[in-house]
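B., you asked whether I could sanity-check this one before it goes into the benchmark set. Here's the sequence:
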Amino acid sequence: MARTGLYKSEVKKARDSLLAMGRHPSVDAVRVELGNTGSKTTIHKYLKELEEEEGAQGQPRGISDALQDLVGRLAARLQEEADIRISAVRAEAEAATGRMLQELEALKAAHGEQGLRLDQTQKALIAERAAHEKTRDERQEQSAMARTLEVKLHAVQERLDENERHRQSLEEKHQHARDALEHYRSAAKDQRDQDQRRHEQQLQGLQAELRQLRQEAVIRQEDITRLNQEGVRLIAELSHARQALAEHHTLEARREQQLEALQQVASAKLVLEAQLAARNEALTLLQSQVSKAQEDAASARQQWQQGERELAAVRARLETHEALLKEWRSRNDEKQQKMNGETDQETPGTAQS
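And here's what the prediction gave me:
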């Protein structure tokens, strides 16, 4: 934008500055030197006057008067064309402003419609809260019924405790049978020794498999990490889907679910009673298997202790190897840093040469 009140002295100062820098003092160059202010016609007029004054003082002129007039007319023509283009741009800007105002009115109307929808949503929320209160009352009734079922379950638990006391009595009776089987254990000692040697061989094989499984565990851990990331994404999607599904559930569906839950409790009670009867029948069979299970447990315990000792030794060797590897890596890093420092010192010398 051209400023008003441009003085000839300012144009002369700008022209002298351009000449001092060895640049030609054209109208555009002088206008840039003035900070893009002032009319090109005014600047051209002042430049022409300055040249005439200097010409009157005997200084040689750079161009003829006819050429200067031509330049002045061209500058005036360029100014007129610039004004025409500015007017066109201004008209386009005003048209765009009108379109934006129309869009703003449309947005205001849409905002009003959204407000009406929000009021309707709030009314629906109030109705849903009332239904929720009613459902809560029904849930309290269901809770009372559940407490009644808990009392019945407590009675069943007492019966189970009585059966447990009966089982302990049976264990005392079977203790005598265990004493009678002690001599059989002595005879089976040789067989156990053979089994232990066989188990030791199996333990060595298991240790080899354990090392292989550790290597596979590293690979599995990477797969687990990737699956965890995928699982987080799927859980987020599932959460959104569940929220959308919960919004479409009706009160009747909730009541049916509660009724089904009560029916499942009743069914579970019947199943529990049947399992209790089966447990009593299986108690005798379990007692006969106690002796053999205890023998197998003792043998397995010895094998497990031996395996733990060997595993501890393997872990100690593994920790030693890891410490040696860490020390080797530290030394390798120090050596690499030292080589990098020598390379950095050689680089400036190469650049100087």
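One thing to flag: The chain has a mean pLDDT of 78. Otherwise nothing jumped out at me.
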